[in-house]
Amino acid sequence: EIALSGNDVIKRVVYLQSIDSTNKYAKELGHQENFESTLVIAETQTLGRGRLGRTWASGEKQGIWMSLLLKPTIQPTLAARMTLLAAAAVSEAIDAATGLCTFIKWPNDIILDDKKVCGILTEMSAELNHINYLVLGIGINVNQIEFPAEIQEKATSLKNVGGQDYNRLEIVVKFIEIFSKYYRLLIEENDFGTVIEYVVRKSATLDREVDVTAGANKRRVFAKDIDENGNLIVINESGEEEAIFYGEVSVRGI
Ligand code: BT5
């Protein structure tokens, strides 16, 4: 466990060799009264999770498996902003540390070479008017070269694309730096535009047809923009503009 001096956004880092899931661990910390904002990092996970209970392959010590526990003073209805903020920070951190060029697939994936290199899982506990805690779970494939057969086609790592090993600590440090900057802008200056600007510029989703899946319902729409709250603005089947708040967007071809 390491205290981070000089950073008022992330107060400490907990470093673990192996854990079932860093998100689960961070959520347990979040149940303590007056918890400090903490970044939980593990070398391996035995039960890494994606959204909707899906599995996240993270058994190898070659990735960055981390969860950031925070208590953001924003309305729970605006929590989706935090996922995009994390996505922007991860993408920018990877690019800065490696020289590679990642893209953001709304709302929670980072794409490299048309494949998924990182996924984000946001979980929170909230009352009507405030957030008790929020956990941003981030999984980045860094130096693995192989994946389980069922995701081999759609997953990649920084090493697969860049052809070399990358220093994971360097990426984590950059992430802490950039995330803290964006977080302060949002919380202290109510500026989310800077994040949106980055997400739009680096979007793998916009200006193309995407499938929007909500439960069993799947529609093909045209992704036009991302609004100031981080919602995806699409042109629907009837030619009308519509905001997509939640659900799942799959970009064709990715
Ligand atoms: C996500 O879910 O993309 C969120 C992943 C969050 C993982 C982090 S790791 C640290 C923290 N602790 C946790 O337990 N979780 C977080 P979703 O959009 O539902 O995507 C899941 C899908 O991605 C799976 O069903 C697979 O198809 C695919 N997948 C699984 N492992 C992958 C990997 N290592 N790289 C790329 N794709 C993967």
Task: Provide an overview of this structure.
The protein has 254 residues and is an alpha+beta fold. It folds into 2 domains: 2-201, BirA Bifunctional Protein, domain 2, CATH 3.30.930; 208-251, SH3 type barrels. Helix content is 25%, strand content 33%. It is built from 5 helices and 13 strands. It has helices spanning 22-30, 80-98, 158-162, 168-189, 193-201, and strands spanning 2-3, 12-19, 38-45, 63-70, 103-105, 109-112, 115-126, 131-141, 208-214, 217-226, 232-235, 241-244, 248-251. The strands form 2 sheets. The chain has an 8-stranded mixed sheet, with helices on both faces. A hairpin with a 5-residue loop joins strand 11 and strand 12. Helix 2 (80-98) packs across helix 4 (168-189) and helix 2 crosses helix 5 (193-201). The longest helix is centred in the last third of the chain and has 22 residues, at 168-189. The chain is globular and about 55 Å long. The mean pLDDT is 94. The chain binds biotinyl-5-AMP.
What is this structure's SSE topology?
Blueprint: E1 2-3, E2 12-19, H1 22-30, E3 38-45, E4 63-70, H2 80-98, E5 103-105, E6 109-112, E7 115-126, E8 131-141, H3 158-162, H4 168-189, H5 193-201, E9 208-214, E10 217-226, E11 232-235, E12 241-244, E13 248-251
Parallel strand pairs: 2-3
Antiparallel strand pairs: 1-2, 3-4, 4-8, 5-6, 6-7, 7-8, 9-10, 9-13, 10-11, 11-12
Helix pairs in contact: 2-4, 2-5
The structure holds biotinyl-5-AMP (BT5).
Characteristics:
13 strands, 8-stranded mixed sheet, 254 residues, 5-stranded antiparallel sheet, binds biotinyl-5-AMP, alpha+beta, SH3 type barrels, single chain, BirA Bifunctional Protein, domain 2
